[in-house]
User: Fold Osmoprotectant transport system permease protein from Sulfitobacter delicatus.
Amino acid sequence: MKSTGAAISAPGLLFAVAGVAALLTPFMTLAANRIVAGEGVLAWNIAGPAAVTPGLIAVLGGLGLGLLQRPASLRLGGAVLGLGGLLWLLTQGASCLLAETGEYARVSPAVGFWVLLVVLMLLMADALTAMAPKPLMRGAILVAVLGALAIILGSGALSDLSVMQEYAGRSDAFAREAVRHLGLAFGSLAAAVVIGFPLGVVAHCRAALRSATLPVLSFLQTIPSLAMFGLMIPILGWVGATVPGARALGIAGIGFAPAFTALVLYSLLPVVGNTVAGLAAAPPAALEAARGMGMTPGQRLLRVELPLGLPIILTGLRIVLVQNIGLAVIAGLIGGGGFGTFVFQGLNQTATDLILLGALPTVVLALTAAIVMDILVDLTRRLPEDAT
Assistant:
């Protein structure tokens, strides 16, 4: 006889075990000031029972719904319910823990919160993978998530947290470094496309150039990031000191220029390599049909090879963008700005929440960029299918 019971999701079971285990670890920390480590507080001790119980029920209920293999929409609802309970516990705990403390006291999420956050986000990702939403629906979900995050942050519900207090004292600097971080990541991507795409097209057409270019770019990719940033300092320092007008353009041994140049060099291999691979992926039958129609090599490139290879080319751009968003953090070491400024300031001051002020937006930005690029890749893959 076949079992009529609800099937258990293997990932959901793993997430539930990890989530319950996380509840046995400190959920928040209370510190006398922004520098000391602080004391961990378990989830059921962060506030009174009336305040804690709804949040705990929501988190446990969300993990319980995640156990069900079908329907996937129920698992998605469980993830949303659990995240709501996590937010409730965080806001209630922050206000209650600070109620009877000194002026300089700080409260922060602890390991239990972060593990639960990762578990519930993985549960949401697993449910969405099973539901397999179309690209436009994935875009709508991303907009909804980012909108909800913006509303939560703008409402002031998390203002008692130490990381938000770090932001409150540095809001102008945060906006400035955010623009600098975006400039490093997206600007280096744009420069790599301007340089790498034509180079990839020519390398696709000429085997000799391809065999000479790709090994050099592969070698650049193997240089550790800190070493690459360090190599740029003396080179651009010499250029700024000897080339007339270079320093006026901002070219110097430290600052934006060496960080930007290093990111462009790191970006060239994925752009050139994926351009070559994408253009070479056109089926021979399609190329023969194009020749039979009398298309010139340039027309075959623009009308056949490029449209068919676009998903692979965009995959290379996705790699570059996500990579550069992360690597731009290291630019803070050489005065390049960006969110890395807060990360390294926090390391120097042993201020964990100042580190988070730089790390968290970097993670959100990288995840958002990856999802958007995945949507674009999926859309370009569907174009030939829709055309047929």
